[in-house]
Amino acid sequence: MTHDHHDHSHAVGAQTDLRMLAVALGLNLAFLVVEIVVGILANSLALLSDAAHMLTDAVAIGLALVAARLALRRPAGSLTFGYKRAEILSAQFNGLTLLILGAFIVYGGIARLIDPRDVDAGPVLAVATAGLLVNTGAAWALARANRESLNVEGAFQHNLMDAYASLGTMAAALIILTTGFDRADPIASLIIAVPMLLSGMRLVRRTTRVFLEAAPQGLDPAEIGAAMAGAPHVVEVHDLHVWEITSGFPALSAHVLVREGCDCHEHRRKLERMVHERFGIEHTTLQVDHEHAGGLVHIQGT
Questions:
Q1: What helix, strand, coil percent values describe the chain, rounded to 5?
Q2: Dihedral (CA of 137, 139, 142, 143) sign
Q3: Residue 299: its pLDDT value, please?
Q4: Can you tell me the distance from the alpha carbon of 135 to that of 156, in angstroms, rounded to the nearest whole number?
């Protein structure tokens, strides 16, 4: 597969991602103000936690939209891969905001457990129910985009956590209405914070791996190197690097030594084809040298 074909496929997928991100952003913004107003009037930390999370959803999705548009720009000048890593920056921001928001909700929930407030559960229940529908709709839109993209996955996780938050807020409101147990509200906010923190840690860990040039998940450099070294007439493979330019775009470079008299160009093409078909790596740069009694004869290929 050529790089141009990969870029075209990536562009088509990115346009779908942009549409789904725009739908999710519209749904979040449409409901944000309602949650803030009712949360303040009803004195519900769970509802205000949900509203705060929805605000970060809107920011996260807006940033994801900008990053997705930047990623479509062609490489130019010193940016030889273009702005593809802007998506990873966006995803890492989303992960960090989930962690920070989760920490604030834990702090507020503990404070409300110690000193509970009266909660007007009726409006809270109504808004949380409507919020569940909005968040489910936004999560559905993002699930239709390419979730292999960490950028889209970050926005999706934000909305999924918001759907969980709405469920927790609904449960707390029902408990308060039926039993008068006001501490159900901060307990719900603490329960909401757990998956939020876990999701944030997962996103930060995955994006950090990309920035550290770690091999993509599911690709073992030792296995790839052994497969290349096991190809006919290949004497040695070294300086092997496998990394991820952006989510769903793995890359490989290596120095390959083949027997004297072999067609280096043909072996390079065969190795590139094998790496693509077996491991799904399209972007390869192989430096192929002849084994030679008097030294190495260098042939470069990409």
A1: 65, 15, 20
A2: negative
A3: 42
A4: 10
Helix (H, G, I), strand (E, B) or coil at 251: strand
CA–CA gap between residue 194 and residue 44 (Å, rounded)? 19
Element (H, E) at 218: none
**DSSP helix/strand/coil, 239:** strand
10, two tokens = 């990536």
Q: Could you give the 3-state DSSP secondary structure of residue 259?
A: coil
Residue 15 pLDDT: 65
Residues forming beta bridges with residue 255, ordered by sequence position: 238, 287
Q: Which two tokens stand for residue 252?
A: 């490989």
Sequential DSSP letters for 116-162? -----HHHHHHHHHHHHHHHHHHHHHHHTS-TTSHHHHHHHHHHHHH
Residue 148: name the closest of 210, 57, 93 by CA.
210
> Two tokens at 261?
């008299």
> Please, which residues have CB within 8 angstroms of residue 8's CB and are 6 or more apart in sequence?
none
Query: What is residue 35's predicted lDDT score, i.e. its pLDDT?
Result: 78
Closest to 255 in 3D by CA, of 270, 243, 239 = 239
| Domains contained in the chain, CATH given | 3-211 (1.20.1510.10), 221-301 (3.30.70.1350)
Instruction: Report pLDDT for 3.
Output: 47
Low-confidence spans in the chain with pLDDT less than 50: 1-12, 293-302
Identity of the amino acid at 296: L
The phi and psi torsions of 213 (rounded to 5 degrees) equal: 60, 30
